Amino acid sequence: MTETRRPSQALAEPVRRVGGGWTASLSLANGAIWVGWYGPLQILLASQAKDFAPGTGMSKETLLAWVTGAGAAVSLVANPFFGALSDRTTARWGRRTPWIVAGTAGGALSLLLLAGAGGVWTMAAGWCLVQLTLNAAFAAVTAAVPDRVPRGQRGAVGGWLGAAQILGVVGGTGLATAAGGIAAGYAACAVFTVAGVLPYVLCHRDVRLAAQDRPPWSWRGFLAGFRLGPRRYPDLAWAWLTRFLINLSNALVLLYLLYYLRDRVHYADPERGVLVLTAVNGATLLATVVAGGVWSDRVGRRKPFVVWSGVLMAVATAGLAAWQTWPGAVVAAAVLGVGFGVFTSVDFALMTDVLPKALDRGKDLGVINVANALPQVAAPVLAAPVVTYLGGYRVLYLVAAVIGLAGAALVGRIRGVE
Questions:
Q1: Which of 200, 243, 252 has its CA nearest to residue 348?
Q2: In this model, does residue 357 exceed pLDDT 80?
């Protein structure tokens, strides 16, 4: 009788709960990567665009849009690509750690390249390299969760990763502001990104993929693996679509918030108003992102949390259309934060629960992560004609609410999760 060979531990479904130290260090690494992204996005790239725009024939707004758009295009490809490469990695340090190290080091060097940028092309190339390299690290960090965390703990771990992401956005903005200059801001973000990733890399051993478990290489097979395959893996396809729609609804809300406060609410200081609404939204989001994930783990269910968080966000978005006042905007920001906090943690756990094959976790999560980035590209294309020709902000926020409700309703099409 031929003995059946068991797959390596890297492909087994995890059953042992991870400790607080592992969760904290992975969350810190995740937050550090977001510092590397959002210090430039919130402050530094805009400052460089202002300096470089004269003489290019473009406004600073247009130049910034082209540079960030090019980076977004790179990120759409890089995340699933490096996730797929990490799936196939058989290094002695594990599947994910080599890519976390290489991506973080490359990201820090790319940030330093941006610090010394002397013109538009260096700025654009530097930002595209930042997106390329940090997405390699981010894809590996994300894939570590289904590799190591049992299903009944993924809501809580997803909550802590979500909290770290929010703090990373705030921390990156703070570092870039407090550093005292563009070059110093980039250097501070680079140092923090490396320092934040080190505890996970140094203190936690990754699971190694056995060489015999890696499938034979072919370009055709590798590229074909990026197809979502809705007929073959319907749960993954429906999960992707629900995430895309709810994120698109949220992106539509945020895109013209400054103009909404100025032109519809007639708030005296719209820039300060955006800051206040962002703080309110962030506070309620942080209050629910971990709690929602823990609650979902305890009851052993995902879909009701995703559905009702989507419904809550849609109600808040519709409130922006119906109640166009400053108090209405504050209430909507708070309610959106509550809903998006629960959605962030529980939907991440839901995504990991519907992954079809252990061998492709990194690639599949990379494809799912496209549903986070693509709405940032789609939102301006949809929002501009609605605001300009089809009824203004009231119609825009009603459209956003309907899109969010559709995303929440389609969660019911996912059959493989209770």
A1: 243
A2: no
Question: Which of 193, 188, 228, 210 minimizes the C-alpha distance to 95?
Answer: 210
| Lookup: tokens for 361 | 């976790």
Distance CA 297, CA 63 (A): 45
Q: How confident is the model at residue 132 (pLDDT cuts 50, 70, 90)?
A: very high
Among candidate residues 218, 239, 207, 224, the one with its CA nearest the CA of residue 354:
239
Buried b / exposed e along 142-174 (16+ C-beta atoms within 10 A): bbbbbbbbebebbbbbbbbbbbbbbbbbbbbbb
Indicate whether 266 pLDDT > 50.
yes
CB 170 within 8 A of CB 279: no
Q: Which amino acid is at 390?
A: L
pLDDT of 4 > 60? The answer is: no
Pick from 344, 343, 365, 342: which is nearest to 353 by CA?
365
User: Per-residue pLDDT for 415 more than 90?
Assistant: no
Interaxial angle between packed helices 270-299 and 326-353, expressed in degrees from 0 to 180 and rounded to the nearest 10: 40
Split at pLDDT 50, 70, 90, the class of 230 is low
Matching residue, tokens 């809501």: 155
Could you give the C-alpha distances from 113 to 4, 10, 129, 168, 190, in angstroms and in order? 52, 36, 9, 21, 10
Enter the tokens of residue 15: 């059953």
Q: How far apart are CA 208 and CA 173, in angstroms?
A: 36
Which among 297, 418, 414 has a CA at the least distance from the CA of 356? 414
Q: What is the mean pLDDT of the chain?
A: 83
Whether residue 140 contacts residue 362, with contact meaning beta carbons closer than 8 Å, is answered with: yes
d(CA 13, CA 21): 21
Closest C-alpha among 62, 37, 43, 42 to residue 52: 62
pLDDT tens for each residue of 341-356: 888 888 878 877 777 7
Sign of CA dihedral 293, 296, 300, 305: negative
Are 23 and 154 in contact by the 8 Å Cβ rule? The answer is no
pLDDT in tens, 68-123: 888 888 888 898 888 888 888 888 888 899 999 999 999 999 999 999 988 899 99
